[in-house]
Amino acid sequence: MMKSDKVSISIVLSAVFVASIVIVFIFGFLSDKNGIGSFYVNSEEEIKIPVVELFSTPARTHVSEARAVLSSEFTSKFNSTAIVTTRKNNKLEQVLASVRAAIRKAASIKNQSVIYKNYDLFSGQIYRNPNSFYRSYVEMERRFKVYVYEEGELPLVHDGPCKNIYTSEGRFIHEMEKSNNKFRTRNPEAAHVYFMPFSVTWMVRYLYQPNTYNVTPLKEFVSDYVRIISRKHSFWNKTQGADHFMVSCHDWGPMTSQGNAFLYNTSIRVLCNANSSEGFNPKKDVSLPEIHLYGGKVPSKLLHPPPFNSSRPLLAFFAGGVHGPIRPILLQHWKNRDSDIRVYEYLPKDLDYYNFLLQSRFCLCPSGYEVASPRIVEAIYAECIPVILSDHYVLPFSDVLRWEAFSIQVEVSKIPRLKEILMAVSEDEYRRLKEGLRAVRRHFVLNKPAKRFDVFHMILHSVWLRRLNLRVG
Description:
The protein has 473 residues and is α/β, with parallel strands linked by helices. It contains 18 helices and 12 strands.
């Protein structure tokens, strides 16, 4: 073959190769409604996460009552399009399938509203289904494994605030970072979920320029972090982050998560700012209790509330800054209006905040700038019935807890009738609510080290439920 013929053939083959690349590229582009992105990774529309229920009780119609739980329809829903990867014969997923079946079986037990397990009492008055909660919790203790990404430098990653208003964010991060944490695995292939241990609170401290209200640097940090772990590891790309989670108690946690679209829309976001009207999805996201610990400890007066039958002379109490849309309404109607309902904008220095909590039958918990309020947990500690005044707030652990058993929710429009509503609570009902507070207190306590059924374990259990809702097949 002459040299010119070889050159001609080479040119033709090159032209064919280039044409093939162009055709494939165009096909990939046109098949992707979002552009070129999903030509390389699965598009968002290809990620299908099933919404299932853990308990046989029907979901409520109020938006804040949506939750991640299992139901009798579990099997049929998981046999549909709930597959986010193509891995076959995955042993980990087979074990989770058996767990789902065990929880479903426990949930089906009839006529057993109270159960005793290892000297622990689980009442149907407090739990939506005590059998299924206990079985799910025990399965979590036995099997749940979390891989904590090691990427990132202090202080923005692997650290967080362990005192004051954002305590729950930092304490969770610190607990997960412990080398003796039984849930943490060093083998990412054995993990059910993957934790991204960055602190939004520390981002605000170190990256945010005061008074600019510019959260772009925070979003960029999150974007860079996801980019790093997705390039270094294979796990994010397998599910587009559906089995990954973040934790933030800062008000800006939701906005910061917008740094990556899949983190915002697909991943599990554990947030204090659990506002269902601002993108919080209770079927995949987790409501994190806001716990304000001055100096990192529960105030001594709240460690041991007064005896159950102690007199509480005040009907209701609130003290706090006037910010957000709800508190001005509360103060307008009740500040200095009634000696039974003590409402203060700021408590005078000669009065003790915790004494008021311990002397009141009901503690008013209005939202501020954002929906969450540390007053709810303070009220639980003080055994003062929380009166929740909030719109669109998804209450913590409402997957398993019946908040109506230990709190009262009052619509904002009914704040002018607050005294009438609280006075209508009978003595029997008040005692029932107070008993409920005593029963759930342990679920809202930060222990060091963590203990069974405390707030750390309840947060993990909420993540566990959402992982059970995801089939990686």
